[in-house]
Design brief:
The complex is a heterotrimer of chains A (about 475), B (about 500) and C (about 110). By secondary structure, chain A is of the alpha/beta class. Chain A has 16 helices and 11 strands. In chain A, strands 1-3-2-4-6-5-10-11-9-7-8 form an 11-stranded mixed sheet, sandwiched between helices. In chain A, helix 5 packs parallel to helix 6 and helix 10 crosses helix 12. Chain B has about 500 residues and is α+β, with helices and mostly antiparallel strands. Chain B starts with a strand and ends with a helix. Among the domains of chain C are: about 45 residues; about 30 residues, no CATH class. Chain C is mainly alpha-helical. In chain C, helix 1 packs across helix 2. Chain C has 4 helices and 2 strands; from the N terminus they run ααααββ. Chain C has a two-stranded antiparallel sheet with strand order 1-2. Classes of the chains: A alpha/beta (about 475), B alpha+beta (about 500), C mainly alpha (about 110). Chains in contact: A-B, A-C, B-C. At the A-C interface, helix 10, helix 11, helix 12 and helix 13 of A face helix 1, helix 2, helix 3, helix 4 and strand 2 of C. Strand 8 of chain B pairs antiparallel with strand 2 of chain C, so a sheet runs across the interface.
Chain lengths: ~475, ~500, ~110
């Protein structure tokens, strides 16, 4: 069997059983990434050392499974650059919580993935180390900010990759690259060690090619963590069990699945509209009751609300980069110059714009009509979703309004580019879990369809996705021939 | 038309909370004398991905202080990020509190200038993390002219409670009383050691002058206020404010205008100098900290904290006055720290009379403490031993002079009470023979008195007591006065 | 939703320059213009929000229930040592910063 197309579940079980060596799985990763990287540029770092020691990995749910981490997540001993000159060559001195949990379960962390600089962007084009490419069509972006992770999983480098999602940084690339992407409820997975962008909305999630792999990954990383005050302490259900039992005999009978009135097919590209129809119709076939709900506040005001809060929080999160304790430190004969020059040289233009906007709107002139207003609108959006979940079990909607766009398409038009997040910002704002799957015909470019669940509803979400997966299948490894 | 210039003073005091670890991480707060940057971690260094973790004890101590100040404590207090760039601030924001602080609306009573207690309102109390420390490359260590500075983040993240008073303070003296009372309170509650020398209590003042009509009291003009920093002792607070009052009054008298500014007190020169104009006030762009949730403070927590309150300084002071018949001044001295008050009361429990014990503690004990430094626990003479010694004086077994000698031996020589008594030759029961010898000697030296007694001219026993007193003096208080009287009687019979 | 774009004039450029200074990012003229245009278009979001309904007192969606604050125990981290060792400018156990006082004095001591 081609190691590159093996699922995490299979690799782990074979390694535990002795049928497969972890080093072989890791070697397959090296070989494939070596071959495809010139075209994809999905990776920023490959950890040959860990790859070599793969057979020493612990025994657990992810024994011997090669996994990749977005370069915004700290891995001790590996560079963590956030795809920025500001942290070029910076080696993290400590591990993220997710990394600790993954290694404890036997996973082999093989490297770090390319991303938009400091997660600001939707295409990975703002990376200081070159844009990544979509494996389905290298003229197109894999999306962003976690585009490198999505591309790597789609190309078959590894069965799992982990990244933070803020407004769609994980869901949108998953959609563009045709893989499964899971953004958990805010507070389910510890953010310890994940570089913050917008701390009230950042949440660590996973890319995979099967629903079961996503469930296994989630069960490993979703432990409560006292180091993260926003980490929830409640007991986690058995995600893998939910998933497996649904995949086996489950269906969607008795489930009310809602489509959103405000998401009109006119605003979608034809391939997305088609993918969406396919998935909705599958839900119906599996026994779900399809209803329609209106969420006017959420689908009119999410974008301005999200952008305000993102800018304010991001500007704050990125203030600490000043060249004094770590990171790029410019030549300077004064403290003022040190700040001004280091930050000018370290940040790319995208990051600078977001910082500038965020800095401005927290000022006393605009705080009220920008930040406070956005905060209160956010609470209304969350309430609107909570009310909706009284009437349904899941909400289904397209993940992105169109398929992956071409590189350069939004040069000089950052506001245009972020429209690709139009349907992923709501889950961030309302702190809800969302899972995206490729609803498109496998012959065409991927088009994601997502299910949003109520808070802490990952088990139901994974179960429903497992049912649909029976029909649409796992994510296929991308090859260049498709999608032109 | 007469005019008066009235000072309007408010104090902002930062108190370092007595916790083991920092406000948002587990690094030690014991930074004085520590190797620079040895008490640091990803959190207090502001590394990417690091998240704050709130110290429960810091919240408890802040609430305790708030309750001691009779504030209303908020359930659901939140933290804000206060943004500014400076080399001692790793995240380029300080985690502090803005419009929903831990507590608001309290009071502290001080001895007012008029002689009666004066109420000083407390505006608010909030929690915040301390910044790191900067050392400068100049020879005198000052910032001005330094080509380089050196950052030590050991202090960064240490928990502080900022206590802001209403502008109710009316004079430098009252300001000093306020700081003193607050210091006493935080020490009593175990909230902070309140040490201005070591920086665990830092005082900033806001002061302005109001010009009023002397006749009607009507306000004619309110001067702009100045913030005064760098007052590192009670005395500095008083002196700095005295200077500022003179300075501001002079400006107003000249018909000139004061600007809102921050001024730095120079203790050596005895002046305040302008630091920067507060007109260009920093906009801190405060934002609620998304990494931290609201802090719940329940009724149960408040009750538990209140029940752990020790007797507060003003209550103890009043009790000492009534229970031990002390005057206000002496009582105030004895309650200055809970340790000292406890020492005093332990002396009384060990047998000392309250008034004599008060004298001893205020003079001898405090003298030794000041000479040696250190804490009351480290004193060579414990309250039990001192109490016994004082009791011997109470009972007439020892004169005060002799007792001081004994105390000296115990303190300097480190001797326990028994041995010190022996060494001074004091407190020993004289043998009957030696005592009789002394009695005979005294009788022989006072034949007239003796005659009067023998002639039955000592109805009230005063002459007998006189002789007894002489014997006691002769034996330096070592004799038992009852035994002496007995001996006098028996020897009289022989005469 | 298209955001409005108004003309960029001197006030907008001045604002952008001031904001860049506040955020401690040195910018050249081209970048000032870029930021001015960005901020200007970005503020269209404020206009959009102004049309949203008003309601106060709703709970914060990201608030976590029932977390417990940390017990007050001091623990040493060795990460601090590695950060110091890797510092961009270091003398002994100190991080070094160049001349603090200059044209812009922002001594914000506590």
């Amino acid at each position: 069997m081609n190691l590159s197309s093996m699922t995490a579940a299979k690799i782990a079980s074979d390694v535990r059983g002795g049928a497969l060596l972890a080093s072989d799985a890791a070697a397959a990763f090296l070989k494939l990434s070596d071959e495809l990287e010139p075209a994809l540029n999905a990776l920023l770092h490959i950890d040959k050392g860990r790859v070599e020691k793969a057979d020493g990995a612990r025994r657990g749910d992810l024994s011997g499974v090669p996994v990749l981490m977005d370069d915004g997540l700290c891995v001790r001993g590996m560079p963590t650059t956030c795809a920025s000159r500001m942290l070029e060559g910076w080696v993290a001195p400590y591990d993220s919580a997710a990394v600790e949990l993954l290694e404890a379960s036997g996973a082999v962390i093989c490297g770090k993935c390319n991303m938009d600089e400091f997660s600001v962007g939707c295409s990975t084009e703002s990376s200081a180390f070159g844009a990544a490419s979509n494996p389905h069509d290298t003229e197109r972006t894999p999306g962003g900010s976690a585009g490198g992770c999505a591309a790597a999983v789609a190309a078959g480098y590894a069965p799992l990759a982990f990244a933070s999602d803020t407004g769609g940084s994980l869901l949108q690339p998953a959609s563009f690259c045709g893989v499964y992407g899971l953004r958990p409820t805010y507070g389910l997975v510890s953010r310890w060690g994940a570089t913050s962008l917008a701390p009230s909305m950042d949440q660590l999630g996973v890319f995979s090619r099967t629903v079961e792999d996503a469930a296994i990954a989630l069960s490993v990383v979703s432990r409560p963590d006292p180091r993260d005050e926003t980490s929830d302490r409640r007991e986690r259900p058995d995600y893998v069990a939910s998933c497996r039992s649904a995949a086996g005999e489950g269906n969607l009978a008795g489930k009310r699945i809602a489509i959103v009135t405000e998401v009109k097919s006119e605003s979608l590209s034809s391939d997305v509209a088609e993918a969406f129809e396919r998935v909705v119709s599958l839900c119906g076939k599996e026994g779900a009751e399809i209803i329609e709900l209106s969420l006017p506040v959420s689908f009119t005001y999410s974008m301005p609300c999200f952008q305000m809060l993102l800018a304010a929080e991001a500007g704050s999160s990125l203030a600490r980069f000043d060249g004094i304790r770590y990171g790029l430190s410019a030549e300077a004969d004064s403290l003022a110059a040190l700040y001004l020059n280091s930050r000018a040289a370290g940040f790319g233009m995208e990051a600078k714009r977001t910082i500038a906007a965020g800095t401005y709107i927290l000022g006393s002139e605009r705080y009220e009509d920008c930040y406070l207003r956005a905060s209160s609108v956010r609470s209304m959006i969350a309430r609107e979703f909570a009310d909706a979940f009284m009437k349904c079990d899941l909400i289904v909607l397209p993940t992105t309004p169109s398929v992956a766009f071409r590189k350069g398409e939004y040069d000089g038009d950052p506001f245009g580019m972020c429209r690709s997040q139009a349907f992923t910002i709501q889950a961030s704002l309302a702190s809800l879990p969302s899972l995206t799957m490729n609803g498109a015909d496998r012959a065409g470019l991927p088009a994601g369809v997502q299910f949003i669940a109520p808070k802490w509803g990952e088990a139901g979400l994974l179960a429903a996705a497992s049912v649909i997966e029976r029909s649409i299948g796992p994510a296929q490894i991308a090859t260049q021939e498709r999608g032109r | 038309m007469g005019q008066i210039y009235e000072p309007v003073i408010g104090l902002e005091i930062h108190v370092q909370l007595a916790t083991e670890s920092k406000l948002f991480c587990s690094c030690s707060t014991d930074y004085i004398g520590a190797e620079p940057n040895s008490n640091t971690c990803p959190i207090c260094l502001g590394l990417p991905g690091a998240l704050p973790s709130l110290n429960a004890k810091a919240v408890e101590l802040a609430v305790k202080a708030a309750l001691g100040l009779s504030c209303t404590v908020r359930d659901g207090t939140i933290f804000h990020r206060k943004h500014y760039f400076y080399a001692d601030l790793p995240k380029a924001y300080q985690i502090s509190q803005y419009d929903r602080p831990v507590a608001e609306g309290g009071e502290l009573f001080i001895p007012g200038d008029g002689g009666s207690p004066k109420r000083i309102g407390i505006t608010r109390l909030h929690l915040e993390e301390d910044a790191g420390k900067l050392v400068h490359s100049t020879a005198d260590g000052r910032l001005e002219g330094a080509e380089e500075s050196y950052a030590d983040y050991n202090r960064g993240g240490v928990p502080l409670a900022e206590i802001v008073s209403d502008p109710d303070i009316g004079s430098p003296r009252e300001a000093r009383e306020y700081v003193s009372a607050l210091r006493r309170l935080v020490r009593y509650l175990g909230v902070s050691d309140g040490d201005m020398d070591r920086g665990s209590m830092r005082v900033d003042a806001n002061i302005s002058i109001t010009r009023k009509s002397a006749e009607t009291g009507e306000v004619i003009q309110r001067g702009e206020r100045a913030e005064i920093k760098n007052m590192n002792s009670l005395r500095s607070v008083e002196r700095a404010l005295e200077y500022e009052i003179r300075r501001q009054t002079a400006v107003l008298e000249r018909g000139e205008v004061l600007v809102r500014e921050t001024r730095h007190w120079n203790d050596v020169e005895g002046v305040t100098t302008s630091m920067r104009s507060k007109e260009a006030a920093l906009d801190y762009r405060c934002m609620p900290d998304p990494d931290l949730g609201p802090v719940r403070v329940t009724e149960e927590m408040l009750a538990a904290i209140e029940s752990s309150f020790p007797e507060l300084p003003w209550a103890k002071e009043a009790r000492f006055i009534s229970e031990y018949s002390l005057n206000e001044v002496d009582s105030a001295i004895l309650v200055e720290t809970p340790d000292l008050a406890e020492y005093y009361e332990e002396c009384i429990r060990s047998g000392a009379s309250p008034v004599r014990a008060s004298n001893w503690v205020r003079t001898e004990v405090l003298r030794v403490l000041n000479e040696r430094g250190g804490s009351i626990d480290s004193l060579p003479v414990g309250p039990g031993a001192l109490g016994e010694l004082i009791r011997m004086v109470d009972e007439g077994k020892l004169s005060t002079t002799a007792a001081k000698e004994v105390y000296g031996e115990m303190t300097d020589g480190g001797l326990p009470l028994e041995e010190a008594l022996k060494k001074c030759g004091a407190g020993e029961e004289l043998s009957q023979e030696s005592l009789a010898e002394v009695v005979r000697k005294v009788m022989d030296a006072n034949p007239d008195v003796l005659t009067e007694i023998l002639d039955d001219r000592d109805a009230k026993g005063k002459k007998r007591k006189f002789l007894c007193g002489l014997v006691m003096r002769e034996t330096r208080g070592q004799a038992n006065s009852a035994a002496v009287e007995g001996l006098i009687d028996s020897l009289l019979q022989g005469r | 939703m298209t955001l409005k774009k108004t003309e960029i004039g001197a006030p907008e450029l001045e604002l952008a320059a001031r904001v860049a200074e506040t955020a401690r990012i040195s910018v050249d003229d081209e970048e000032v213009r870029d930021l001015a245009e960005y901020i200007n278009e970005f503020l269209g979001y404020a206009d959009a929000l102004a049309g949203a309904p008003e309601e106060a007192g709703l709970p914060d969606p990201s608030a976590v229930e029932g977390y417990e604050a940390r017990e007050d125990v001091a623990e040493r981290s060795d990460v601090g040592d590695s950060v110091l060792q890797a510092a961009p400018r270091r003398i002994g156990s100190f991080f070094v910063v160049p001349r603090i006082l200059g044209a812009q004095d922002e001594e914000a001591s506590i």
